[in-house]
Amino acid sequence: QVRFVESGGGLVQPGGSLRLSCAASGFSFQSIGMSWYRQVPGKERELVAGISYRTGVMTYADSVKGRFTISRDNSRNVVTLQMISLKPEDTAVYYCNAGYVSPIYSADWGQGTQVTVSS
Fold this sequence. Notes:
Blueprint: E1 3-7, E2 10-12, E3 18-25, E4 34-39, E5 46-51, E6 58-60, E7 68-73, E8 78-83, E9 92-98, E10 113-117
Parallel strand pairs: 2-10
Antiparallel strand pairs: 1-3, 3-8, 4-5, 4-9, 5-6, 7-8, 9-10
């Protein structure tokens, strides 16, 4: 059974930092790219960052380039998203999924983790 468990969200002031983690299971983590997405009410879920499975090539949405860093630990089946210089427009529920730039398990989203950037 495919499962994603996101954690690390919270309330942070503008300019602050957060580190999100996603524990994945139920598939061959080491053989698949991973990605982070975010969603705000009334909008489509959007890709934030992706990382390939082998070479570690990364891609980012233009809105987060230079502020967010995606990484993965294949020994623990964990993908992380380090976020700095957070802005109010980063407020969203953040999710992870398998796949480099599109979700492979689109029917198996986790509960997500809420990130709120506000003073």
